[in-house]
């Protein structure tokens, strides 16, 4: 059975239309942060198991950036949010 992603703009689409682009939970350091913080931000990632949030690009559809909340163990998708909406919510 193919995995399906419910794009907020295009509706339910096969996962093959999307590209995973990395964790959506990594916080960018301040410009004045020490080099060690920048090194960790750029090169070091935790390989968490379970429910995670990732940036996905709908490359074969609306071409929007999305934040997908899913389990990397079961591949169950819990929610899909437009990344712009998510960023505006975080800025509040």
Specify the CATH homologous superfamily. Folate-binding superfamily
> Portion of residues in helices?
10-25%
What's the CATH architecture? 2-Layer Sandwich
> Could you give the count of β-strands?
6
- Poorly predicted ranges (pLDDT <50, ≥5 residues)? none
Strand content: 35-45%
The H/E string reads: EEEHEEEH
User: Which CATH C-level class is it?
Assistant: Alpha Beta
Give the biggest sheet: 4 strands, antiparallel
Radius of gyration: 15 Å
The tally of structural domains comes to 1
Distance between the termini: 39 Å
Number of helices: 2
Shape: globular
Q: Order of strands across the widest beta sheet?
A: 3-4-5-6
Helix vs. strand class? alpha+beta
Q: Would you tell me which CATH topology applies?
A: Folate-binding fold
Mean pLDDT: 92
Protein name: Sarcosine oxidase protein, delta subunit
Pfam families: SoxD (PF04267)
GO molecular function, one term: sarcosine oxidase activity
InterPro entries: SoxD, SoxD_sf
Describe the protein's topology:
Layout: E1 4-7, E2 11-14, E3 19-23, H1 35-43, E4 51-57, E5 65-71, E6 77-82, H2 83-91
Antiparallel strand pairs: 1-2, 3-4, 4-5, 5-6
């Amino acid at each position: 059975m193919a995995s399906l992603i419910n794009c907020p703009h295009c509706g339910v689409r096969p996962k093959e239309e999307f590209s995973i682009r990395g964790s959506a939970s990594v916080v960018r350091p301040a410009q004045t942060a020490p080099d060690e913080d920048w090194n960790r931000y750029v090169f070091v990632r935790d390989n968490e198991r379970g429910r995670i949030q990732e940036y996905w690009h709908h490359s074969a559809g609306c071409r929007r950036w999305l934040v997908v909340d899913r389990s990397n163990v079961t591949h169950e998708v819990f929610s899909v949010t437009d990344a712009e909406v998510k960023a505006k919510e975080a800025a509040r």
